[in-house]
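Sequence in, structure out.
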Amino acid sequence: MPPACACWVTGAQHIIDQLVQLKSNSDLESSTLTQRAVSEYLAHNDLDAHIKVLRRNYARKCKTMVTGLQRQLPASVHISDPAGGFFVWLELPAGINSETVLAQVQDRVTFVPSTTLYPDQNVKNGMRLAFTNPDEAAIRRGCRELAAGINKAMRVTCGAATAMA
């Protein structure tokens, strides 16, 4: 079965108009199969109730991640505490390259290094961490593994006093 993707967006009409134009430039039409599946789902399910459940679950997972990282990382590591969305942004001290950390932990945990998120790839000390897919136990394990990798990189780069034991 081919992949199915459906989404919606809200916003100012002039922005929506531009998005519609971009979409029409990228393909001729949305998949009839996807449209039918979404129509059937909406006919038999309460989308607003489902979104409320998702928001509650995502908020709990986000809190698990932020709290887990805050407990295991020094204050010199900035951890965002988002009010919504799918990601936590983590900023390492200057001089710590997130790709180096990824190389150390990639068999146990993964994240998107900031170099892939900026056109000039000059921001090297950031990480985008996703919390929506793993369960809370996996998030806690991932936080421990990631913190261990970050603390190791900080000891090597900045000295023992900057990392947490």
